[in-house]
Design brief:
Six copies of one chain form a homohexamer.
Chain A: H1 10-13, H2 20-31, E1 37-44, E2 48-49, H3 53-63, E3 70-73, E4 79-80, E5 85-92, H4 100-124, E6 129-131, H5 142-151, H6 160-166, H7 176-182, H8 185-195, E7 203-205, H9 212-223, E8 229-232, H10 243-255, E9 262-265, H11 271-279, E10 286-289, H12 291-294, E11 301-308, E12 311-312, E13 329-330
Parallel strand pairs in A: 6-10, 7-8, 8-9, 9-10
Antiparallel strand pairs in A: 1-5, 1-11, 2-4, 3-5, 3-13, 11-12
Amino acid sequence: MTTPEFEINRNILSGNTADYEIIRTGEILREEKINPDVVVDFTFHDDGILCGITEVRTLLNLVLPEKTGQAFSLEEGQEVKSGEVVLQIKSSYASFSTYQTAISGILASCSGWATAAKECFDAADGVPVIGNPARYVHPEVVGMADFSAAVGGCSSTTTMAGHYLHNLTPSGTMNHSFVLLMGDSLRAMNAFDKHMDLDIPRVALVDTFSDEIVESIKIGHSMKGRLRGIRIDTPKSRGGVTPELVKEIKSRLDNEKLGYLDVIISGGMNPERIRQFVQSKAPVGTFVVGHYIASGKPKIVSADIKSIDGINVGKRGIIPGPASNEGFKQIH
Amino acid sequence: MTTPEFEINRNILSGNTADYEIIRTGEILREEKINPDVVVDFTFHDDGILCGITEVRTLLNLVLPEKTGQAFSLEEGQEVKSGEVVLQIKSSYASFSTYQTAISGILASCSGWATAAKECFDAADGVPVIGNPARYVHPEVVGMADFSAAVGGCSSTTTMAGHYLHNLTPSGTMNHSFVLLMGDSLRAMNAFDKHMDLDIPRVALVDTFSDEIVESIKIGHSMKGRLRGIRIDTPKSRGGVTPELVKEIKSRLDNEKLGYLDVIISGGMNPERIRQFVQSKAPVGTFVVGHYIASGKPKIVSADIKSIDGINVGKRGIIPGPASNEGFKQIH
Amino acid sequence: MTTPEFEINRNILSGNTADYEIIRTGEILREEKINPDVVVDFTFHDDGILCGITEVRTLLNLVLPEKTGQAFSLEEGQEVKSGEVVLQIKSSYASFSTYQTAISGILASCSGWATAAKECFDAADGVPVIGNPARYVHPEVVGMADFSAAVGGCSSTTTMAGHYLHNLTPSGTMNHSFVLLMGDSLRAMNAFDKHMDLDIPRVALVDTFSDEIVESIKIGHSMKGRLRGIRIDTPKSRGGVTPELVKEIKSRLDNEKLGYLDVIISGGMNPERIRQFVQSKAPVGTFVVGHYIASGKPKIVSADIKSIDGINVGKRGIIPGPASNEGFKQIH
Amino acid sequence: MTTPEFEINRNILSGNTADYEIIRTGEILREEKINPDVVVDFTFHDDGILCGITEVRTLLNLVLPEKTGQAFSLEEGQEVKSGEVVLQIKSSYASFSTYQTAISGILASCSGWATAAKECFDAADGVPVIGNPARYVHPEVVGMADFSAAVGGCSSTTTMAGHYLHNLTPSGTMNHSFVLLMGDSLRAMNAFDKHMDLDIPRVALVDTFSDEIVESIKIGHSMKGRLRGIRIDTPKSRGGVTPELVKEIKSRLDNEKLGYLDVIISGGMNPERIRQFVQSKAPVGTFVVGHYIASGKPKIVSADIKSIDGINVGKRGIIPGPASNEGFKQIH
Amino acid sequence: MTTPEFEINRNILSGNTADYEIIRTGEILREEKINPDVVVDFTFHDDGILCGITEVRTLLNLVLPEKTGQAFSLEEGQEVKSGEVVLQIKSSYASFSTYQTAISGILASCSGWATAAKECFDAADGVPVIGNPARYVHPEVVGMADFSAAVGGCSSTTTMAGHYLHNLTPSGTMNHSFVLLMGDSLRAMNAFDKHMDLDIPRVALVDTFSDEIVESIKIGHSMKGRLRGIRIDTPKSRGGVTPELVKEIKSRLDNEKLGYLDVIISGGMNPERIRQFVQSKAPVGTFVVGHYIASGKPKIVSADIKSIDGINVGKRGIIPGPASNEGFKQIH
Amino acid sequence: MTTPEFEINRNILSGNTADYEIIRTGEILREEKINPDVVVDFTFHDDGILCGITEVRTLLNLVLPEKTGQAFSLEEGQEVKSGEVVLQIKSSYASFSTYQTAISGILASCSGWATAAKECFDAADGVPVIGNPARYVHPEVVGMADFSAAVGGCSSTTTMAGHYLHNLTPSGTMNHSFVLLMGDSLRAMNAFDKHMDLDIPRVALVDTFSDEIVESIKIGHSMKGRLRGIRIDTPKSRGGVTPELVKEIKSRLDNEKLGYLDVIISGGMNPERIRQFVQSKAPVGTFVVGHYIASGKPKIVSADIKSIDGINVGKRGIIPGPASNEGFKQIH
């Protein structure tokens, strides 16, 4: 993964997205001329995969004082336990207080997506997982959701916005609308084959009009070896995609000397369902996971002042004093 | 609510956030000169509150042909059942296919947030609910999350980004960091009182250093009637906020002739916990809900071609033909 | 239903199928010259549908003394509660003791089947149910299982052996083997149409080679109005038969002006699944139920002496004395 | 076990018990002169104990062409897993298609009984189990149920019909009716002792009139060493037979120098209850199991054409081609 | 119920049974000359039946100042909800502080017993319940447990110690030891009949040696109408006492013209089991309940100062100020 | 533990607390001049800790014939399994029959308390447990409950009545009433410090008026090293005492150089909650357990005659003959 290039937009930098109470009390502190050096710890309140640190670093590099500000953090993609401090900022309070909401929000949502992706990755036990959250998250964050999916272990995602951040080749071939518009699965595949660059893998979508296997065999023979795989997205009302279906397809494709075709499956995939495929040894080539990753619950990340001008403090209910964490790397 | 002003950013308009297969097959269709008039139905696959239609309308107004394109939808905030079609677009396929991912994503995530907010609103049974998702969602979507919370029934949210969309006065007074920096709850309140405009309600945060009631009474007396309420955010390790605590606080405030103070509570609120307060008749003034709204699971919204040049179609597993819905209003 | 003609075979009449202890103690009683007039009650220990009384009557008419023996029973198909006496025999002990095992066995197994059929009948709420237990029960009892299914409410069953007992027209058209051997679903249907009498309804089996709907429409159009229905038996690995599938099929058939076709479904049907179809208003024409009826658990029927030469008796744990039951009809 | 002698009755041989659709399509195929060589696999869809193969072999030997027909199967009593092929027939289709229903039915019901018996046998952990299904199954199949119980591990069953098939000595001594008719448990035992051959073990039934132990001791002393055991069938309303009861009985019998008496128990026995006796070390001599074996759920056995004139086939949902199974023995 | 005569023993009056911290701090307060007038509320923290007030009144009348002390309480046997104040004492602190532990303890344990008895009483639905806790509680409190059982609804208990408090005739006839020592149930009954006053009801214990019914009938006939009832205490290993057993006994007694005999049952009775008898309409004459009543969990009763010299107070977590309760009666 | 001095009161010795049927049948046996030598076994029907044997020995030594009576028992505090005989008395029946109810009751209730205490002791894993049942049991048995708690492993209890039996120093310092009456936690502690002997440990109760930590630190500094610990009894409405609270308190005390203070916790403690503290390594100094010990369910102890004049007997349901138990020690 090369370094992603996150842009922090004006809305965030101006404080518009901050909890307003932070802005207000910031003004009072200015009036009162209170601006000590503080240490703020960002603590995880759940187990999960840390994600968003790269974007947070981009933000902090824009705002923290170059000399007097310091920040330390765990690494993108690291496993974190509940109660662990993942980010520690040491600087004058006024230099970064405005951005606490944004930092918490980035870490919370990206870690939620990355953790969900990681669960799928672990369940898949070596079979590639493609992350496909784009149609379930707001388009403003499609890139970040894709990036988080990659941090969680996805070998690819499906948008250019994601590609600009994680630099992996975007995945995806054709959809049901295309097949419907072409009027026939084979005709759709042929058109795809005719117009697409040769380095784009030919993968047929085979459940639009008729039985998956009937369509697969027809297209497979017609494409004479140029077909790389088939994608199955059987709707729930037709039984969805099951391990038995994948086994039968592979067996019938073998009978037809089409055993080289990969079977790519999508449709309501999640760790539990992926595990069923893996445990029953269904010969899946790739899992595509969308809604489960998009639904990754935000991890709760709290920001707490732990030291003021070198004196350990902590609000009631918190053990006072900054945390130390062996895994900390300096990021500013 | 005045009309919010959503801006659709370049990334979305350029197709960067679309599922790449839509872009690819769009190119093929262009090459093949296939561009029929289609009807595409956007169907909910869950029960919930519809949200995001305002932003979708803004997008469609930018891209659909002014004369030949049409769009119909249900209304922002409407209750929707699983299987219901919430949006129907009639236009040439090429005119809007690029934006199907974005439209699905806006509706999925905003409806997820609005539904979660609505559950809290219903549970609160008339007591105001403030939505506070900002620190749990990515800052790019803080405004939309706040807007969705308002659609779901929140009487206010906590950021300016939200305010620009839903036009409600942002809520929020002070945070624990401020109190820690001021070194004393009363001193913090006094500074707030001194510097803030008079139309901003004075609400004390009373659990930073000592017992909530000890602090409340001290500040209440000191503010001599200018205090409007107290905010309780007792940490879990101190028992969290409970109905019994709220009852005891109100009773002791009454004893001290401070019964006019509102009790605003936050910390892990969700519909179930809100119901406990309501059912046990704890005199809560306002509920503040953050993580539960931010975690609102995206509603699955699928986009399906139902008619091509006037002929009913549908992929396998779908009943062919466009839906009709009495609730449809034309939005383009 | 005309009177069925049961035959009682030699094995049963000779006592070979009786519990041997009954034979042995019969011999001793003969030696001891003990043969009082007794009343024996046959009691149900479960709730359920009584079945087998017709066959039991046939047996009793063969063995009971014409003048001195008497038998009373509830009626075939009647609902019975646990603890109810369903049959009462009054005669000299030696005249029928040999047949107690057979009588209990007939009532136990036939009532088990009939009860299972009744549960399906009730769930189907007016939609016809065909009983198809033949391939799950021993061939020696296929007729009795079919008869019991009819007593439980099935409008037809699938064997001639059943027909000879309940006199209903046997149901069934073609099987998957036939379609495989003909090599094509349409060719199979045409052959059926060519050779079968005109009074046999034409029903196509449409899931052998390809998608159910693709095959249905092809055959439907080809048969030009002579097709009466289609049978769906989608295998579990392809999602089985679901309410959504039936709805989609009917909708697509309607689109093709084939809406007059009945949809007959089979495959793992049981009361719970039938109820799902009925509750979701899937337009099913007929349910076919096999394994569930065949698995109807034998109802426990105990035979107890309740009176000896006019004196009330009962083994320990039994309330002594013959039962009276308003529903009793004399059958001998 | 010597070879049992099954007789296949006329009803079965004539096709009366076959699913009628098999008969009908057989006629069409004859008309169409379609009669290829096929391979039909009979597949188990449950785990269980295979039973019925002996009877099936008898049937196949009567109907399959002597030279061109072949059949292979697993062995009677073998443990089978779901998905395993237990019988494979290779022959011209017309030569055996009529009997597929009967073959499936025999295997389904006999394997159901044998599996239930095996579960009891395993639970009993070495203590003999007597199978007593006769009063819960239809008398036509009492012999097969007894045979299946023996295949599942029962050391004896209770009817002559069973004996003719499995050749084990039938078990059983006296029943409650006998004791009631004799008017006294001791008098009943004495009559039994007087009239029965000496090689028949004397076992007293001791719960008809009074306390089990009171009766046991009275009879035990009276029989002066000729008593072999006692049978306990305590009704549920008197607590049923429990491990504690068996322990107390043995202890009191020991006190009376009657410790040599076996305790044979019956009444609602099933694997779970048997395990309770075994685990609590109750000194049970023999378990008698009736209803549980008779209720053995038919195993689903499907018959599928897997090859037609040497070409692998299979209906949709089935992996095409005949199975191979290392356990196959040729039976024809 | 006449007024019971509780005696408060020296140990209690001397403070030996008080929590020692009360004694210690009492000394300090004396040294500091702090002895204000206080109001102490005794609050229930469970739902239940209030019991022990009579004994507490006896104690308070011994120790509270005759003129300046006051006490108010709910009534013996009243139903109380969690959070309700059951006793309120107004006096100088030193006058009764020593006895707070004892008062709480009396109310806690007696209310626990009474509540358990009440649950049985309610379940019995009009059939008398005899309380028999004596063998499960410490003999020092047998009288109080019996008294509490009577408060909870028992129509009698089994000890003289109880009788002295609640004045009901003690219940109980003979035990298994007696029958064993007499060597025969009938002989035991005859001896009882011979030596006991005529006003003591003759009730036979009939499960010591043999079957309950065999013994009942024998004794019933022998006593020629002088027998009032039979007591059944069938041990668990013999099935315990069940509704079916009671029904069979009554039916067989009826057959023998002994239907006038009451059936008194004991052995592991509790509300759930009692309900089973009542719901199945088993003709039980009396239920005897021992262990369930003795196990009545102590109700938590806390004592809190609510007012000091007329000023409302309360420790943290308590709403300050004395409770008012419409049900209060003055008891001192 | 030195020998405790139990006193058996007149009520018990006179038979007033015995089940009245024992008294009555005792009279009959006297009249009948039946008084054989018997062996009576007292059997546990639950698992648990034996307690009460010391008091039972005191009673037996008062009543058993010095020469001809014998008694054997397991030891105070021993673990006992269900079905084990814990006490065996050999004597003439009349010499002790009156006391069977009392003996059973002592063992039942004391073993119930001791078992509950032992569960807490085991859960505490080495941290001391103080037993505090006094306010939940009747004051007549406060001493026995404290004694039983000590037998179960408590290192101290809270009343003088307990001290007289188990000889451990009673525990306890101050209560909330004391702090309320002193008006301030620090003032209360100072008064305690001033008046109490120096060998009594100074432990502050710190949750009466304000936050536990605020009060602890204030008192800790003021007492200048003379404070031994703090007691936390946070009410449920304030979150109760949690592992996190204890950790935070210790951490803040450490910050203040007050890390030497023990944290003593009370309030709804039971084995499950104690385990939570132990497993999360919260630095608890002492657990105080009251209601859980007081609620220890009486263990069922039955008394059965097993031998009469040397002949083994037993009522129905009991294995006849005296038990032998390797653990028996002679106690009379």
